[in-house]
Amino acid sequence: MSFKAIKFVLLGWLLLVLPIGGSSRAADGELPEYEVKAKFLYDFAKFVEWPAENSRADTPIVIGILGRSPIGSELGRIIRDKTINGRRLVIKIGTSIGDMDQCHIVFIGRGQEKPLAEIFKELKHGHALTVGDVKDFTKAGGMINFIIEDRKVWFEINDATARKAGLTISSKLLNLAKKIN
Amino acid sequence: MKKPPLFMDWADRVQARPSGLARRRSNRAGQLGVSILTFILVAALQTASAIDPSSTNKTASADMAIEDIRALMNIPVHIQREERPLNESAAAISVLTQDDIHRSGAMSVPEALRLVPGLDVAQVDSQRWAISSRGFNELFADKLLVMQDGRSLYSPLFSGVFWDAQNPLMEDIDRIEVIRGPGGSLWGENAVNGVINIVTKSAKDTQDLYATAGGGGFERAFAAIRDGGKLGEDLYFRVYGEYSDHSDSELVNGTPAHDAWQSGQGGFRMDWDKRDNGGDLMTFQGDLYTASLDQVFNTFVASRGSVLLPFGNPIGAGPMPDDERTDGGNLLGRWTHSFSSSSDLQVQAYFDRTERETIIFGDYLNTYDIDVQHRFALGGRNDIVWGGGYRVYDDRMQNTPTISFNPEHQTTELFSAFVQDEITLVEDRLRLTLGAKIEHNDYTGFDFQPNGRLLWTPTERQSFWGAVSRAVRTPAEVEENAIINNVLKPGPGGVDAQLEGNPNFESEVVNAFELGYRVQLWTNVSLDLATYYNVYQHLRSEEQGTPTISGFNEYIPVTFGNELHGDAYGVEVAPTWQVADFWRLRPAYTLLKLHVGDESGGADTTSAAMMEGESPQQQFSLRSSWDLPYNVTFDVTVRYVDRLTYFGINSYVAGDARLAWRPSKNWEIALVGQNIGNAHHAEFAPTFIGTQRTEVGESGYARITWRF
């Protein structure tokens, strides 16, 4: 391919990248999507009550991440040295549902491919708060779903599903949710 | 990136509350004043509540937490596109999962590749396979780049893959990604019609003890064992070993073909994964293998030597049995450092040694490779990956009268640099990817491989994609400086066609235009469709010169040239139908129309017909997977492959079936039937290196597997 052609292509790319990529959006206080979602996960833990056998004061709160997701590393940075009600927080990252066995919160990443129905069936006997960020997550049986509207992260909560799993979600959090079932 | 300070948000919200404070947004100083006042108020409240520590403190911290959440809901985010699900790629991509591989009963990577829609997989004999995508299938199919964990399996000697030297533990393969179509800008040279990437599981996922053993007809006997462990915090490892013994395939008349072989391979993998704590990921892996193969080569009746028979002497030739052997090993290290969740740096280096000794050539190759890749987000709309690599091939040949190389020892270098930008034109709807790779190799200098892809997702359930690419297939050593003696008629009075390398051999080029469509039709039916139109230039031709007679023998010089061109179009359709909870059907259809022509004045009369007739025009397959009660699974795949006109090989229908029972978590029994349909059928014929024509026979095996 001739040099001229290469120059043309490069110029075209620069013209596309600069006006589109260099938009002012980038500068005004934007955060990466998963940094915000990770902070939410940490905050959710403050507003959920698990059944007594999962809430012993000397045990850590385990947040499981199912499937590869950028939320894992973000969450790691946030929960370091933090406690909720005196309990420390740990993250467990796994690719199979069995890994999520003893988790208090399970975040189901977008990258994993198992059907949601199968995941919820396996988690049914535990008392994990299920959180996700795909369409129809709560319809499929999940408890909290992240939605992005107008470039901001909101969340919807299916309280009935949570109560069935033995969890009590504080009304303060329910009030902030976009839609309560 | 600036984060709004929390107390300023507090102040803004306090201002907005209708309870009494007036909203004064216009005056900055006024705002600041109110903020300071509110801050003092809040501080006062906090100290007040400190007097009664019990419930008020809890309520205050709960309120703070609620305000945290409210604040989070007001922060604008930029969407991260990592770990994108498959259906958001602008390419014809298929992924074989470990589950697919396990349930198919495939004992090797080529057998597993039969499951991929659009791939042309033909078994040449017991140990060799011709695998390609979108045409040009040959023993050394040179238009398909194959890699394992980032290490190239493509031999620079013949521009192809020696599949008998690739024996990873099938159980430890996490997935096989297959991209049909040029992958030049990301993957580089020789990814002309496709890229196959075999990805093994991380050591963390293979901590249990795994053992398997079995035997049968063609797969005479096999055994493998793998164990993993933890060496320290976040440091995982695994070690494996495997052995397999394959019997002969069959000649056309049904007798054994004398191509049985045995292979042993072992290796390790270590992963040090500190990413959960904001640290790095380091991976070390290595394998060692050895294989001993029976084979029969059409060659000179001569033992291994390094001197060409002087012209004029009687030329003798015929099929010679051989004890071929191949050994090798590799060592790979990879370091990934995350700067943030949208930016990381990866450095990878590997060493690979492979040796092969046959009666027609000997090859001792060392490969050294280092690759660097940096990914980062630019603004809110660009995801950029760029990097470079350097590779050295240090190849020593052992010449024989049949195949000789000049010089016998060659060291070649390959430099590459690439960049790719994924631009979000319309959020969640339209994405443009532009990329290019520039490479420099010792044979053809610089090669430029640009590509552009567009992905349009009009609704949640469907997406369209299109791509325009240029990719290049760089010369193999054999095309540049080898001499291959193809004895057409033994002497005296014999005829020898002497195929000569051409130091000016150019790279083959493809310009590809692709369109694809993916749709989720109903909850249980999805469809993946890809079409393409490829234009090929500078395809390898064999230019025949004027024959000369010397003494009693005729000598026909044939030189490699680049005088052919071609075009191809085709369609690949792969629906998936989840018929019921326990039953999934996956049909697939492939159509290929390839036409190859001669530049005017070219002297190659046969290659065009060979290229057109060495891949099937149509292929159809149907995969059915049942989950039966009592932990029984049953999988059947039936395939139809169209005839290969050049070889006179008929179309065939064959099936594989696997019935497995897993009575407990720890062990599993499986019965597998392979190539069932007719007693034996031919799938390919030897090209380039003369061996016997063999056929694939029906066979089966049983295996038992333990996991602890």
Task: Provide the gyration radius of chain B in Å.
Answer: 30 Å
Number of DSSP strand runs of chain B: 39
State the CATH topology of the largest domain in chain A.
Answer: Rossmann fold
Low-pLDDT stretches of chain A are 18-27
Shape of chain A: globular
Distance between the ends of chain A: 60 Å
- First and last CA, distance of chain B: 48 Å
> What's the average pLDDT of chain A?
80
Largest sheet of chain B: 22 strands, antiparallel, barrel
Kindly report the average pLDDT value of chain B: 84
CATH class of the largest domain in chain A reads Alpha Beta
Q: β content of chain B, as a range? A: over 45%
Helix content of chain A: 25-40%
Tally of structural domains of chain A: 2
**Strand coverage percent of chain A:** 15-25%
CATH structural architecture of the largest domain in chain A: 3-Layer(aba) Sandwich
Assembly classification:
heterodimer
**Largest Cβ-defined interface:** A-B, 55 and 50 residues
Which regions of chain B are unreliable across 5 or more consecutive residues at pLDDT < 50?
1-29, 42-56, 301-315
Provide a count of the helices of chain B: 8
Total beta strands of chain A: 10
Q: In a few lines, what is going on in this structure?
A:
The complex is a heterodimer of chains A (181) and B (708). With 181 residues, chain A is an alpha/beta fold.
